[in-house]
Write a structure and sequence with these properties.
This protein is α+β, with helices and mostly antiparallel strands and 293 residues long. The chain has helices at residues 3-10, 16-21, 26-29, 34-40, 45-64, 68-75, 96-102, 105-125, 151-166, 206-217, 227-233, 268-273, 284-292; strands at 82-94, 129-134, 137-142, 177-193, 200-204, 222-226, 237-245, 254-262.
Length: 293
Amino acid sequence: MDIPSWLLGLGLQQYESLFRENDIRSDLLRGLTDDDLKELGIAPLGHRRRLLDAISALQVEAVNAPSALEIENRRAPVPEAERRQLTVMFCDLVGSTALSSRLDPEDLREILAAYHAAVAEVVAAFGGFVAQYMGDGALVYFGYPQAYEYDAERAVRAGLALVERIGRLQSGFGALASRVGIATGLVVVGDLIGSGQAQQRGVVGETPNLAARLQGMAPANAVLIAEGTRRLVRDLFDYHDLGRVEVKGLAEPAPVWHVLRESGIESRFEALRSSSRTRLVGRDGEIEQLLRL
């Protein structure tokens, strides 16, 4: 702080030489007392009072000054919600209510901890993001915060891996079972919801609702996907077509597929594009030319 300017603002610039001769710098200013001002040679009580009031104000400012961490946090950009295509997965533990009535709470806690650890490990391996754990359920994003070209494919592979991995966990009454619902579509994602440990990046749109409904209707150890996801992964997997299914909250029945396994198609190109290509029709001249060449 510039002491001459500070004194000038108080209308007491005549004491600048006293402060300079006694080597009173900004780091000592806040500790000055009435006795110190008298020793400096500032006799008028009104002047000392004005100086003491100004020093008290500096002390309050020092107490209320933000820390370096607070300043850095203020400078840090706040992530904004954004519109993007997202593949949303809901994973749920089957029969957890029955387990809670048969197990001691501490034993149930250990089972849920093992289940959550399995979800986190599998999802991370396929590039997903666990947005929230909800008791025996998990909400997972593929395509946020990091987007990849094949997010829908990653999500389906992760769903199959989750069902297999969780099926290896034991509860004391047999193997655990899970069910997975996956949907892909446009959403708005990134809004901070809640606070503290409950804070999460929220997602708004039809996609998460559809994924949650699919998970709710899936049988044990099954992965159900919606049309948007099926359109992107095409023949990379083998399916059981469930047809158009009534989904609560949707005006029209939605096409749903039960993913059985990865397909045996060796060519990725064929798997992703074979169903979209058609035969050449009415191109006899062009075909003859191609054959001649």
